[in-house]
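Journal club prep — side note

Before the paper discussion, L.F. wants everyone to see what a predicted structure for a comparable chain looks like in token form. Sequence:
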Amino acid sequence: MNEERLEPGLERYARQILFSEFGVEGQRALLGARVVLVGVGALGSHIADSLVRAGVGHLVLADRDYIELNNLQRQALYDEDDIAQGLPKAEAAARKLRRINSTVTVEPRVMDVNYSNVEALVQGADLVLDGTDNFEARYLLNDVCVKHGIPWVYGGVLGSYGITMTILPGRTPCLRCLFPEMPPPGTTPTCDVAGILGPVVKIIGALEAAEALKLLTGRGRLNPGLTTIDIWQYHLETVPVARVEGACPTCAGRRFDFLEATGGTKTTTLCGRNAVQVVVPGAPHLDLGELAGRLRPVCTELLYNEFLLRCTVEGYELTVFPDARAIIKGTQDEALAKTLYARFIGS
């Protein structure tokens, strides 16, 4: 194919279009797609970079977190200036991605994805991609995607190890087919003790992005099972998986336990952060300027912008978002985090 004959708007994708199994029709399908990526940290930032360069037409980035110095070792798209500006990951990623490809729509959502908002988030999506860092979020994505018949790609990394699986509701096993129950707290390693090597993040992110290209264009051979890799011991394996009819509580029983959770303040200990996130579903939008005025007398350090407010008080760092969510840094005690939230932000 002579790239000079490409219609306007496709020239930047010329080398991708030259790949015979992709072609112009594949590119058009990609440009017309809407993808929701949940989590724009280690995995998510690499996935987002690949998809925007490839020309996914509309990419929604949902992430609850902000950028810290230790993120830069493995998370693409971010730099020290983003930290200095106090930018949330979703917003910083969107700004970078728009500079990479201004012809696609990148929509940042600074939010905690939970049972109360995930259905609205994925509405109209052709595909959902996993860039999360915890089991609860993945089981929630599994629930909503199985319920609404949306393909999704699961991925995870820890230490030198990575794992990924492509899930097509009604056709392949879902996450609960393989793992019927979420592991209890304290029974699986975390990044606090195992760490993460940057290269394995890139590999699993690339595999997720490649699955996305195949799913959105309807071309190529999808990952046929559960793929695992250990880059330190150099071991790669894909284990075939099959549905067991009637056995899965989600696929067969149509039970969406994580999607149907209800009520109350939710707390989550954040991996590797010595921090707890506090979420109050249904809370009203916060005026961060007004909150800054109230907190200024008690904060030893205070920073706020339209995206977040950060206050250091009594040795703890409180980062508060407009949706009334907060990350309390300096403790892993969820009860203490809820107490600090009530004292300084409100119950």
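L.F.'s comment for the group: The two ends are 63 Å apart (CA to CA). Keep this in mind when we get to the figures.
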